[in-house]
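# nightly structure sweep
# worker-07 picked up a monomer target from the shared queue
# config: single-sequence mode, recycle default, output format = structure tokens
# input follows
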Amino acid sequence: MELNSLRQFLVVARLEHLSRAADELHVAQPSLSRTINRLETELGTPLFDRSGRLRLNDLGKLFRDHVERSLGELDAGRRAVAEAAGEGLGAVRLASETFLTLTGPLAAYKRAHPAVEIQLHWSPAEDMARRLRAQDVDLCVASQPIHADGLESVQLFEEAVGVGTPLDHPLAGRTSVSIDELAGQPFVTARKGHWIRRLHDRLFAARGLTPKIVCESDEPTAIASLISAGLGIGLVPAFARRGTARVPGAWIAVDSPDCRRTVTLYWGAGSHLTPAARLMRTTITGWDWSAGSDLTALPPTLGSPSSAAAPPGA
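# output follows
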């Protein structure tokens, strides 16, 4: 089996769509289809169900897991050889659901180690365990738990998540608000898969409520601006209330013990981390999270403890 064919198989397995996989790989779709057919012939079994939409079947999932581990070991071997040959500290590959929270330690790391190549990858939490086991990335930061074997972790911080509103909103003067009181309010939020959206949907579903979502966006600064402009309200982590940038708005505590997030750093158990990755792990775990991040957070405005706004995606 050719390595390139295996890498192409992983893209098709991830997307479960031949034309999109061909676009991502910059190859012709007929050529990619022949590659997959050759793999299936060599293995003696189909890897995909083709009745209707292309779906990876159980044997395909089994093969995918082995291919990911094998290619991950090859890449780890290449990095280990480069490290042993004295090619510096190596590179570090960090995946996260959001990088707004991480700009402080990332900036400090880059200042301390300017020659290190830092590769940042956005990733939903549900993909992180697979990517760590495959050694596709070295470290992951998630704002929601990852329940998977073969991972090690360090909790970075836990915090309350409140509601951000425009300054003239009826709730803006409140010190706290219940989920029931938020029913019917227009929400500006992130797309499905983002930790804020998962928390948002879980809080409402637990009470048998359906949130009124008027806007979904992948841009945290756009979400903050839309909230400030009066288009709706949205969940905002307490971390985002600290810093230097200002977006006028109010922050109200949510009267629910479940309206919180826990930010955790993960890495593969027993995986070979380059010196650069180990230094990044030390930088992130040693960061003073109680002080927030000067590059990302927003301070209270108007001198009121409950009046603060910030990018909800922190």
